[in-house]
Structure formats: structure tokens, C-alpha cells
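[agent] plan:
  1. take the single chain provided in the ticket
  2. run structure prediction with default settings
  3. attach C-alpha cells to the ticket
  4. add a short note for the reviewer (M.T.)
[agent] executing step 1
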Amino acid sequence: MSEAPVTDADLVVDLDAAIRETPVNEALDELERDLIGLAPVKQRVREIAGLLMLGKLRERAGLQAERPTLHMSFTGQPGTGKTTVAMRMAKILHLLGYVRKGHLVVATRDDLVGQYVGHTAPKTKEVVKRAMGGVLFIDEAYYLYRPENERDYGQEAIEMLLQVMENHRDDLVVILAGYGDRMETFFRSNPGFHSRIAHHLEFPNYSPDELMTIAEGFVRQQEYSFDDASRAAFSEYIARRITQPHFANARSVRNAIDRAKLRQASRLLKQGGQVPVSELRRLDAADIRQSRVFREE
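[agent] step 2 finished; step 3 output follows
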């Protein structure tokens, strides 16, 4: 009597064991714990990591597992965590075996585009060379394309990047970042980029409460502290600042704290005498309310 052939239904993959064994879950938990807000971004990162993890399991099971396209687009206002998430993404891709090194190289137009004929190619090649085996993060990528200037060399960098994204997709992940509306225009003008990008992540602005939590984290990390009055003052600062031009979310919060620290230093040095250590930590409401944000209506 012949034995029945083995079918896929007879083979089992232990997903729970595979999840426990991979170190990527710790990286995902760190992302969840360390970054305030960004719920849709964190969810998308988890989905991408899950897809890649399952791809590795398919390989082990002898199933076809073609390497997915991993180039990405990050859109959102300044200070919404795009570069930070790119760093975490590089680490996750490395842990899952999709990049060799897991490092992040950040570049802008100035790093890629030359000033004269023959200058752009070596600049772009040098940046790409440094990024190989990791992630190349191009911030404000739309500045590469300047159709109004016939003598602009950005198009040369674009063509080189498109070639690299296609021919070296097994050794380099490219993330293009910038404002959402400008990136949309950039993709319409350069469809080659859009067709090579599989994952589009939109980074929302932080809410006032999230910005205050971020501020508390910055202050605590630097061994400063708010008291009740200065905390209320900074909360009011955020409420005013988010309505003004050039607001950059967490970046603006960090800059505001740095300026408050300058005012605290000036205040304490002017006061002189013996100062308790607790006063070296404490930011006073006056250190915050001296901001021009409170003087501008």
C-alpha cells in the first residue's frame, strides 16, 4: 500500500516561535515606546516588518519569496520624526536580513548635485557608495528637480538615483522625504521615482498634548525640570506657537527649550550668590514667557 503524498496542509510553520526568535520585535517595541504619537506610522512600520518576516518564513518553507521593493516615501511637516523613523527602519531591515549594515545616510540636494558640468556624478556616486548596504534618506527630495532652470544639474542626479534604485535594490533602500504636496508634485514630474516606491508613509502633526509630552521628555533627558508655573507657561507657548508660520513640531519644541535654558543661565548668573542644585535644574515660567511668541499677537 503506497503512502499518501505530503501536501502543504501536512507541513506546519510555528509562527509564534518564529516571532519569539526574531530580534525585530524588540526594535518594534522600542519604536512604540520611544516615539510619542505617530500611531499610523508605527502601524505601517509593523505591517512592513510583518511582511518581511513572513517572507523569510516562506523561504524556510521552500516557497517562492521574491525580495519585495523596499524603497519608501516619508511625507509630513518638519519635526514629525521622519529621520528618526528612518533610522529605526534601517535597524529593522538589518535585523531581518534585508540590508547588510543597517546604517542610515542622510543627504540633501547639496550633497548630490554639483555646481558645474562633471561635478554631479562624482558627488552622487560618493553618497550612494556610503549608503550601500543600508538606507539612503534624501530629505526635501523635490529640490532635486528644478525645471525652471535649464542649466540645473539635478536631473543628472535623479537619473543616477533611479538607476541605483533599480539595479542595486538588493543592497540599498532609498527613502525620499518632504512636504506631502511638494512630494506629490515631484512624483508627477518624475514618475520613475513613484513606480519604484512601494511604501508611502504619511507623518501627522503632533497634537498639543503630544508636543507637551515631547517637551517633558527633552527636559527630563537633559536633567532640567518644569515646575507647575513653567509647565503651564510652556503649554501656553505650544498653543500659541502652533498657529504661527514655520512651526516645526518637535523641532520647534526642542529649540524653544534650548532658548529657555539660555534665559535660565542668564537669570542665574545675573542673580549670583549661592544657588541650590535644584535651581540649576528648574526652568522658571519667566524663562519661557520671555519668548517673543508671548509678545506677538
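[agent] step 4 note for reviewer: Strands lie at 72-76, 104-107, 135-139, 173-178, 199-203, 225-226, 282-283.
[agent] ticket updated
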